[in-house]
Specification:
heterodimer; A: mainly alpha; three-stranded antiparallel sheet; 3 strands; B: alpha+beta; Beta-lactamase; about 35% helix; about 20% strand; transmembrane (chain A); FtsW/RodA (chain A); transmembrane helix (chain A)
């Protein structure tokens, strides 16, 4: 650490937003879980007491990260990744099961969730692999390798089973696109998703009509001279149609009922409004309650500690995955908009920082951080306000959870450390 | 390009979130949230409804306790069902059905298992209830009637309807509210104000403490007791006389406009609309389309007033100086009107009539002549009609009186616009509408308007708007609407000859009610006999005349003005006249000296008369014998 100069090079805007979000999160956890009979602020048997302890641990971790030689993160990324995988594997024999998922180690005073640590490890490993001069994403083998790095932890986590956290790892594919993976992979993914949703919502016939119109438009707008072989077009048509046909089969036979219910709710597939309302209140109970709680906040909210639905525990998991509802109810639109803005500014700032990195490892790592934070933010808030089907993952920096907070803190501050070090080039 | 892509996605998602949040929190937000908030339960503390007394402080309406057996399904432990059912007086199938419904509603919330047990049942149950877990008894307050009279005037209370809830945010589902009569009119006074406690609930609907430490809670304000202007004894007596007759009676105190009795026949016992049989009884009353017991005839029935209206014409003639009381008109057992000299009949016996005999013999010819004089006094018929209508309306006829009762009718005093429409502009004259001179034809009034008109005559030119509320919590009402005189357009001295004529109705042999004199009381009155028609199978058929009577007494300084309208009671001196005579005596003397007259009136009914149009057989009207 190089004293004054180092402090000057830290991106204080990101640090400020980090602490702002953490503080808002902690206040909301306090509001969600305190009881009037026990209003003590730092009782370590309570969620907010524990979270305060984790915030302290995170601050220590930040100091530790800043004090560490920047190049150590790159050098030890392989080892860190291996430790992460071993920890995930170790869960199968030694893990503690909470709510059906074997995702924790019992460390006595708190439970460690290795999947949160694995996010940091995987991001580091991915950055390390992609920044290697010998890696070329145009090669099939290297593509597979890169995918392997994120798929292995993802599979281990899905098997816990914690599918929500597993899905998050696929956020790192965005890094691959940044580093050379052609965009049409993403296009294919999007088209498949679109066909899936459109088939469920409108039916196969309309999908066929839509695809045909698309192809017709393509031919009408293309320049006269350009000759395109009809083969890929026919292939596209055939594949689209067969995907569309298989959607119903997958939906009806492969999916479980509770999956189907989530889609029924999300896409409003149930036509009978009474039945839909029934689904909303039973299967969609969480979302129903969280939407109602946020709605009841209005523009300015009910005030700190005044959220009636929060107090009544109407929203399940309100201190963890549904922490955003507390903000919605007690601070209203002013509060929710502030949080959305803080996240947006932080993410945009990180993109800016990532782009100014001279060193490939730092840049790729930065994109990994952005991807992971972004996917959490997108899915969590989207789920809470009813735009995305229910996937249980935390809101970074804000949701209750020691491993999560520590994981996200390390993820972010390693990047800030790398950025602060960007001009010194490995001294 | 890829760098811009990621940034744009971040911005796009941020905007999407802000859009969705503003939809939820700004557009869907409802500010009335404390009542809609699923996390807050309002517990209401209902004050006792105010008692209702008559003008002399006699109790009319009080409250009685009723007891509901409530059940919280989740807390029910296995029990001896047969024993329980016997105890509360229901059968086993009802028990099973109710438990089922309660469970569907909510296993955690109380549900009414058996409603409105009597005090006796409650006493029996109270001790044994502890044995049955999950059941408890909840006290409710119901109306108790210390009279069998005045059902329509008192009105009833019932559960608020969805429409009420929309119009009056004060109420919540299941609360009681005055629906008709005084209960409706003075709902706010009688009801008081419920207290409320807000309780914070958790998602299992359990209470977890007061909301905001009770900062928004309020204490109940008790309902106020009110004293009516109704005289309980007179009201009950009048209703006894009305048994078997359809019609309306209104008695007023002319010196204050207070309604002494408001009788509509047939009536019903107000207690029928309380308790477990309420809805069955209500349907029975409501769907009785012939007797219409819930239709308050004293306020709503609009009929031609008949001969009592003659005195108004006499007053107008005097006021406009077109006649003196001594001017004479010859009656040819009728009179001749119009181009063709059509003869219209009169039952007075014929001969030369002045105002006095015109009134006491109720001579149609005399008043037709008077009417002609009024109209001849003006250059145009329109002008005459306007003056005539202005005078008539100044007696409170033809418009809503503005009583403090929630129902009423306007009646009808036609004006030139009306006849212009019927006959065409300027294509009619006094002879077309001469029926107005003796209160037949297009003119229509309600019994209460007629009583008020009588009071105005008794007061020689003014009246107080009739009202039924006397005191609130012992304090006399001060509303100027009911405490200030309203003057008619007739000067005081013009009333004397007319009142003389009305006295003569009783006092002169040949007066239409001279056999109905009350010994020791000077009464001024006027009979009325109104022809009326109905349609039977599409054929216009005349029915027996309505019997009408108006009177006030004592003539000097009147204490009571009364209007009586008996459907198909034949001429005015029959049913209406008898009842008026008895009620005036009852009110002024406190007892009846003419027991035979009273006995006759209590026993006579008109049921046969009312059955005639529905019999399907030909029938005769206006039968001589009775």
């Amino acid at each position: 650490m190089a004293g004054k100069n180092f402090l000057k090079r830290i991106d204080w805007l990101s640090v400020f937003i980090y602490f702002a979000l953490t503080a808002i999160g902690w206040l909301s956890i306090y509001s969600s879980t305190f009881t009037e009979s026990n209003p003590s602020l730092f009782d370590f048997s309570t969620f907010y007491g524990k979270q305060f302890f984790f915030i302290c641990v995170s601050v220590i971790a930040i100091v530790f990260v800043f004090a560490t030689e920047a190049n150590l993160f790159e050098r030890f990324s392989g080892i860190i990744y291996t430790i992460g995988i071993v920890l995930l594997l170790g869960l199968f024999p030694f893990g503690k099961t909470i709510a059906g998922a074997t995702s924790w180690y019992n460390l006595g005073f708190f439970n460690l969730q290795p999947s949160e640590i694995a996010k940091v490890a995987t991001t580091l490993a991915m950055a390390k692999y992609l920044s290697d001069i010998q890696t070329d994403l145009r090669r099939q083998k290297d593509k597979l390798y890169a995918f392997g790095i994120l798929v292995i932890p993802a599979i281990l986590i899905v098997l816990q089973p914690d599918p929500g956290s597993g899905v998050v790892f696929f956020a790192l594919t965005f890094v691959l696109f940044r580093e050379g993976l052609p965009l049409y992979y993403m296009a294919i993914g999007l088209v498949v998703l679109l066909i899936f949703v459109a088939t469920l919502k409108f039916g196969t016939i309309w999908v066929i009509i839509g695809v045909s119109i698309l192809i017709a438009l393509f031919y009408l707008t293309k320049r006269e001279r350009v000759k395109i072989s009809p083969l890929p077009i026919i292939l596209f048509f055939v594949v689209s149609v067969s995907i569309s046909f298989s959607v119903r089969f997958v939906f009806d036979s492969v999916f479980e009922q509770h999956h189907r219910d989530r889609f029924n709710l999300w896409l409003r597939l149930e036509k009978d409004p009474k039945k839909l309302e029934q689904i909303r209140k039973t299967i969609g109970y969480n979302t129903y309650q969280s939407e109602k709680a946020i709605e009841s906040g209005g523009f300015t909210g009910k005030g700190f500690l005044q959220g009636t639905r929060t107090k009544g525990d109407f929203v399940p998991e309100q201190h963890s995955d549904y922490i955003f509802t507390t903000i919605g109810e007690e601070w209203g639109f002013v509060g929710t908009a502030t949080v959305v803005l803080l996240f947006s500014i932080l993410l945009l700032r990180l993109v800016y920082i990532a782009e100014r990195q001279k060193n490939a490892f730092s840049r790729i790592y930065g994109y990994g951080v952005i991807s992971i934070l972004f996917v959490h933010y997108l899915i969590n808030i989207g789920m809470v306000i009813g735009l995305v089907p229910t996937i249980g993952i935390p809101l970074p920096f804000m949701s209750y959870g020691g491993s999560g907070l520590l994981g996200f803190t390390l993820l972010l501050f390693i990047f800030l450390k790398l950025d602060a070090n960007r001009l010194k080039e490995w001294d | 390009m890829k760098k811009v892509l990621l940034s744009s996605i971040i911005i796009l998602i941020g905007l999407t979130f802000l859009g969705r949040l503003s939809y939820l929190q700004i557009f869907s937000f409802s500010p009335n949230q404390i009542l809609e908030d699923a996390a807050i339960k309002a517990i209401y503390d209902y004050p006792e409804r105010g008692y209702i007394y008559d003008r002399n402080g006699k109790l009319l309406v009080a409250n009685q306790a009723a007891y509901d057996v409530m059940v919280i399904p989740r807390e029910v432990k296995p029990l001896d069902t047969i024993e329980f059912c016997n105890l509360v007086g229901i059968d086993k199938s009802t028990f099973i059905k109710n438990i089922k419904t309660a469970k569907i509603r909510s296993p955690r919330l109380p549900y009414v298992m058996v409603s409105q047990l009597s005090k006796e049942d409650y006493a029996r149950l109270q001790e044994k209830m502890r044995k049955y877990e999950g059941f408890y008894i909840q006290k409710r307050s119901l109306r108790y009637y210390d009279t069998k009279s005045a059902a329509n005037a008192l009105g009833y209370i019932s559960q608020v309807t969805p429409a009420d809830l929309k119009a009056h945010p004060y109420y919540t589902q299941g609360e009681l509210r005055g629906k008709t009569g005084i209960e409706k009119q003075y709902e706010d006074i009688l009801r008081g104000r419920k207290g409320v406690k807000y309780i914070q609930k958790d998602r299992f609907n359990r209470d977890i403490g007061p909301y905001k430490n009770g900062a928004l809670d309020t204490l109940p304000e008790p309902g106020k007791e009110i004293q009516l202007t109704i005289d309980k004894d007179l009201q009950e007596y009048g209703e006894r006389l009305m048994v078997g007759k359809h019609g309306g009676i209104v008695a007023l105190d002319p010196s204050s406009g207070e309604i002494l009795s408001l009788i509509s026949g047939p009536t019903y016992d107000p207690s029928l609309l309380v308790g477990r049989k309420r809805s069955a009884n209500y349907s029975k009353l409501y769907y009785d389309s012939i007797a219409k017991p819930t239709w308050d005839r004293s306020l709503l029935a609009q009929e031609s007033p008949g001969s009592p209206f003659k005195v108004i014409n006499a007053l107008i003639a005097l006021q406009e100086n077109v006649m003196t009381p001594d001017d004479k008109i010859r009656c040819y057992n009728g009179f001749y009107v119009g181009k063709n000299r059509t003869k219209r009949g009169c039952h007075c016996g014929g001969g030369l009539r002045d105002m006095n005999s015109g009134i006491y013999k109720s001579c149609n010819a005399y008043f037709a002549g008077t009417f002609k004089q009024i109209f001849d006094n003006f250059d145009t018929t329109d002008e005459a009609m306007d003056v005539w209508q202005k005078h008539v309306k100044s007696f409170g006829l033809g418009e809503y009186l503005g009583t403090d009762l929630p129902t009423g009718s306007r009646g009808r005093i036609p004006g030139k616009e009306y006849y212009d429409k019927v006959y065409g502009d300027n294509r009619w004259s006094w002879s077309y509408i001469v029926s107005l001179s003796f209160g037949q034809g297009e003119v229509a009034v309600t019994p209460i308007q007629l009583a008020n008109m009588t009071a105005a005559i008794g007061n020689k030119g003014y009246y107080y708007t009739p009202h039924i509320l006397k005191k609130i919590e012992g304090e006399p009402i001060t509303d100027p609407m009911y405490t200030q005189r309203k003057y008619t357009t007739i000067d005081k001295e013009n009333f004397d000859p007319v009142i003389k004529g009305m006295e003569a109705v009783y006092k002169t042999p040949g007066g239409t009610a001279h056999w109905l004199q009350v010994p020791g009381i000077d009464i001024a009155g006027k009979t009325g006999t109104v022809e009326n028609y109905t349609r039977i199978n599409g054929v216009r058929t005349q029915l027996t005349d309505h019997s009408i009577f108006v009177a006030f007494a004592p003539v000097q300084n009147p204490k009571i003005a009364i209007a009586i309208f008996i459907e198909h009671g034949y001429f005015g001196g029959r049913y209406a006249g008898h009842i008026a005579s008895l009620m005036i005596e009852k009110y002024l003397k406190g007892e009846i000296t003419r027991k035979d007259l009273e006995k006759k009136m209590l026993e006579k009914t008109l049921e046969k008369e009312y059955a005639k149009p529905y019999s399907g057989e030909p029938f005769i009207i206006n039968e001589r014998s009775w």
